Structures are given as C-alpha cells and as structure tokens.
Amino acid sequence: MLHLSSIGVDAYGFSIPQAWESYEEAMNEYGVVLNRRSMKWSKLLQGKAPIEKNLTVKRYVRKGIPNEHRSTIWMVSSGAQEQLQSHPGFYQSLLAMEHDPKLEEVIHIDMHRTFPDNVLFQSSVEPSQRTALYNVLLAYGHHNKAVGYCQGMNFIAGYLLIITKDEEKSFWLMDALIGRILPDYYSPAMLGLKTDQEVLGDLVKAKAPAVGQLMTQFPGIWTLVVSRWFICLYIDVLPVETVLRIWDCLFYEGSKVLFRVALTLIRHNQPEILMARSLMDVCECFKSITKGPFTQDCHHFMQKIFAEPGSLSMATITKMRESCRQRIIMEETR
C-alpha cells in the first residue's frame, strides 16, 4: 500500500498534484493491486538464485515491480549488478580521483534545478539527496568521458536514487542506461536521440498514418515534441508512478518500450492531434496528451502500451535505427 504523507507529498517525495482530486482514492486502489503483485513477486523470488529472464518474469515485470523489489530487479535485469560485483571499489575510486573543474561546474549548475518540489532534494532537508546526486553524476562523468555530463542525466540519476537509496547502485544503473540501453542519447552529437526521433516518425507513419501525414507538414517537428520524452525517459512528462512502471520494462526489455509509450500516447489521442492547424497547435497538443486520467491510471496505461501499438520487436527497431542513423549521417555531412 502506498502511504501518503501528511505534508502533501507522495511516497517518492514529490508534491501531490492538486488538480487530481481523487489522487488518494486512486492510489489506494492501486495499492490493492501492488499488494497483490508484491505477494506474487515474493513467492517468485523466494529462495531463488539471481532471477532468470523468462516469459513468466517478463509478464510479472509488465504488470509492475513492487517498490521493495524494484531496485533488485532493475540491477539484475539490466546487468548493473554483475558490473557492480565485477568492479568492487570502482565507484569510490572515481570519487576519490582529482576532479575536472569544468565537469564539477556544469553539474553544480543543475543541482538546484533537479526536482525543486521534491522534499528529498531540498538543501534544507537533512540528509539531502543533492550530495548523493552530485556524487553519482560526477563519478559517471569521469567514468564516461565521451559523455561527461548532459542535461537530463540529473533527472535520471535523481529517480535512480529515489528507488535504490544507494549511490553505487544508481551509478551502475546509469552505466547500464547510458552505456548499453540508450546508446548515443547523451553524447555531444546526440546521434542516438536524433535517430530514435526519426524512428518514431517512421513508426507513426505506419501505425497512425493520418498523424504521420500531418507531421510531414512541419519539418523537424519530432525534435520539438518528443526529444524531452526520450532524453528524460518520460520524467516530468508522465506521472511518477507511470514513469516507474515504464522503467521496469525499460531495464528488463530494453529501449523499445519508449516507442510503445510514445505510439500509445499518439494513437490514443489521434482525434485531438489531427485538429492541429499550426506548429504551435501541434506542440501544445503533445504537451496536453501526457496529462489526465489516461496516463495517471498507470496500471491501465501499461496494459495499453502492450496492446495499442501492435507488434513491435527489438529486431524491427534495430533495423529502423540503422536506416535512420545512416540517413541522418548523410544529411549532416552534406
């Protein structure tokens, strides 16, 4: 059961949205679902060695990982646990080394911008997660010098800390996301991010052709409307509980889930999107479709993302990425 704080924050330290009047009622209903899932997960994990990847576990993950098991399952399914165990003391050694002043400066700038409404990240609170957040980002910047630090990484590290409550685990989960699950999203050229925006555009043409046709009227539109969706992995775009459910699948199944979410939002809201008559209309519409009861009911929303877009294999995504990537490289080298 999710317990709501008397000071108006949710289980993760975020302010409870005032616009959603039935928040507590909805969370209590979802709490019943979580309790049921929690018992099933406890039974599945009881006395087992590291969890195997199979259809049963995949089905369990898609139905949601309870918070008490979330950190463990994310670590194991993403390969982060294996990396942590293979590199004892590595995270601490990164923090102990001499730091790049430029890296320190850019991270410092974003500290106060990271979840200012979350009680866990306020400097007046002891212990504040800001110190842990700074450490994770600094260590990762030294570990992956090709990326260093990029805006958006602060939000990802923040969510990881909220769930794991552990700097070292958060560091290795960052490594799994940025190094393996989302290649080239955060590199200076952001080629992976640009590629996935193009892939989404092509998928929309196939799975929501009327919207695809509308979007062709506005060159570069996908960068404007979905870059934040992808680079922040839906943080501050969708409700917290919904984002965490998406991340359950992201760590277990890989990045194709990001496309499933985007396609579901677009297909579900086709009538509203097709009413757009200008670039500004489209941008406003894409902001509004992420809000409201459809995305707040995370359990129903997650059922929809695996039904609404139809078949979408990782092999298909990989093939489309190769094609779009080559197209972007050719355009940028003209």
TrEMBL record:
It comes from the Eukaryota. One of its GO terms (molecular function) is small GTPase binding. Keywords: GTPase activation. Pfam families: RabGAP-TBC. Residues 64-254 form the Rab-GAP TBC domain. The keyword Metal-binding does not apply. The keyword Ligase does not apply. May act as a GTPase-activating protein for Rab family protein(s). This is Growth hormone-regulated TBC protein 1. It comes from Gadus morhua (Atlantic cod). The lineage of its organism: Eukaryota, Metazoa, Chordata, Craniata, Vertebrata.
